[in-house]
Amino acid sequence: MSFKTITVKSRVYDQLLAMKRKNESFSDLFERLSKNNIEILQNLRGCMEFDDKKELLKDINEKRKEHRYG
Question: Domain locations in the chain?
Fold first, then answer.
């Protein structure tokens, strides 16, 4: 098993610590959080219909550019 060291802000550490269950390691917490998010996203897939997907994607890309380049 390999290990990685990460750096987080104190505020983020405190938030993660509050989310961590008793007797749960931070690795277990990260695994639980990432698994939950993947399952949520997988459950959402295909649940919405869009009239014009190309137009939607175009709008999303434009908003991303505005956000990145201000």
Answer: 10-69
Q: How far apart are the first and last CA of the chain?
A: 43
Q: Which helix (H) or strand (E) holds 35?
A: helix 26-44
Token pair 């269950």: residue: 21
In this structure, what DSSP letter does residue 22 have?
T
- HEC sequence for 6-18: CCCCHHHHHHHHH
Is 16 within 8 Å of 8 (Cβ atoms)? yes
- What is the pLDDT at residue 41? 74
Note the pLDDT of residue 70. 62
The structure's pTM equals: 0.53
Q: Which residue has the tokens 């993947």?
A: 38
pLDDT at 13 over 90: yes
